[in-house]
Amino acid sequence: MKKLPAIMFGALLAFSVFAQAAPVAMNPGDLAPYARSVAGPAAIGYDAADLVESIAFDHVVAIDLSLGSVALDAAAPRTFFDTPLTVLDGLTVARTAYGVTVTAKTAASIHYNLKGALAGTLTFASDAPYELYLDGVSIVAVDGPALNLQSKKRAFIVLAEGSTNSLTDTAKRVKELDEKAALSGKGRIIISGGGVLNVDGNYKHGIYSKEYVRVRGGSLNVAVSARDGIRTDQGFIFDDGVLSIAGTGAGVDEESKGIKVDGTESAPGKGAIVVNGGYITIATVGKAITAGWDIDEDATTPDKADDPNPDVIINAGVIKVTTSGTPYEKKNAEGLLVSCSPEGIEGKSDLVVHGGYILARTADDCLNAGDSIVIDGGYVDVVSSANDAIDSNGTLTLAGGTILSVGANPPEGPFDCDMNNFAITGGTLVGVGGMTSGPTAEACAQNVLIAGGYAAGSSFAIKDEKGATVFAFTVPKTSPTLIMSAPGLKTGGQYTILVDGTVSATFTISERITKIGGMIFDMGPGGPGGPGMGPPPDGWTPPEGWAPPEGWAPGQTLPAGAAPLAGE
């Protein structure tokens, strides 16, 4: 990514962080460079077998759902509504009590041209990979899913250029059609093309695959009123196209999520979410994007070698997420512990951002990972209203890109990695919030400034001894702590902070981390902070639910050995 001059960085901050309580509308023209896909073998998760254009199909079968007709290889159409039709040896099309079923017990690979409307469920069972070419298809289920893919072979769903297609399931199922989604599959589902697919999920999920879902193109709109927009067991890969998910389900412990990969021990090494380009917009009650796996609850064997790999990897792409749920953890009527954590993007193992544009507005963590977070490129703009903006339960490495991180009030903040390694080695970043994890001095290759709170909307600028502006932005939120780092902050340099044009402070950089204010989590050896640090800023009161160290109250110096905060 091109290095942003100080004035441009300031303009971006003022526009996209301070002024917005929810994501701004995407302008594909402005964000196109971020959305440009990493294609071919360079793309993370590339698999030549996922390219429908590389398959030479043996037959073309045209099915008109409105007319109940089938045509094989451009022959005259025949009807199947009254009697099951044998199209070729091993291939039958039949009307059933619940819709239409296509059964292909043949090694031949078949390209199906589909059009027309169906009231019922369209079911496919195939012994070979197959293509469903949707050209103006409308399926409204009566007793189950709209599209029921029973085959474990790859199903290629290609959206005809300029076409609009729709799939709608029912909120209730008959036993014979108890599948999990409006578009439900037992095998891999690969979506591409230049048309539109609208999916309306009313039972559980919008799209479900027992293996993985890959989107290579097209415009995909998924709405769910129950569980998740897209749910898979083994992975999700987004290469290109436009994906929009709206999840409104708010049932206790069943809040709608956007994209969720469960991860299973039957698929070791799988379970990741990968974004290689394109545009994704998600608005849900629960988590927007999550690669899930809970070893305490989900593991069935003690051997970790068969565990999944629940990472989120963002190589490129424009991702805009919002969550509307309120975080909670409580017991339900049956006495079971249930919870809602409406995070933005979560990897139960690692979260890696190599590029792209990420904009998140959440109540819980915007970015979260169980083991590590690495950001080494792209543009990351995240705001949490009630928790940390960027939270790793393991290590945190900021190595490149532009990062704008706004966390909630103490004890939350812009960056949290508990007492683990926090390395800042490159990029341009600003973090604002209640407090921050302290960067690990020996792990940082770029200078870091930690300062006190500034009023929301004020103009913040740093100038060097020659009066040149090296860093400038509009403060997004009134908070006790501001942390920033940029290549322009040089060791040995003398700098002046101006707030609304008036000198606020001066400092000289003599160490990797310069602290002139703010609040830091106690990092212990190797990081700033430590026992016996001073009280938080005047006027600060603990938020609801915050537990201070024993014997401490606001306005008092924290007792030695028990300090979770560091201040002036």
Report on this structure.
There is one protein chain. The chain has 568 residues and is mainly β. The chain is 4% helix and 43% strand. It is built from 3 helices and 44 strands. It has a 24-stranded mixed beta sheet that branches. Strands 4-5-6-8-10-13-16-19-22-24-28-31-33-35 form a 14-stranded mixed beta sheet, with no helix packed on it. Strand 4 (85-88) and strand 5 (91-96) form a beta hairpin. The longest helix is centred in the N-terminal third of the chain and has 13 residues, at 6-18. It starts with 5 loop residues before the first helix and ends in a 53-residue tail after the last strand. 51% of the residues are buried.
List keywords for this structure.
single chain; 568 residues; mainly beta; 24-stranded mixed beta sheet; 14-stranded mixed beta sheet; 44 strands; 43% strand; disordered N terminus
Low-confidence stretches: 1-27, 523-568
Question: What amount of the residues lies in strands?
Answer: 35-45%
Shape descriptor reads: elongated
The major sheet is characterized as: 24 strands, mixed
**CA-atom Rg in angstroms:** 27 Å
Q: What structural class is derived from the secondary structure elements?
A: mainly beta
Work out the helix count: 3
What's the β-strand tally? 44
Distance between the termini: 36 Å
Measured as a percent range, the helix fraction is under 10%
Would you tell me the overall average pLDDT?
A: 86
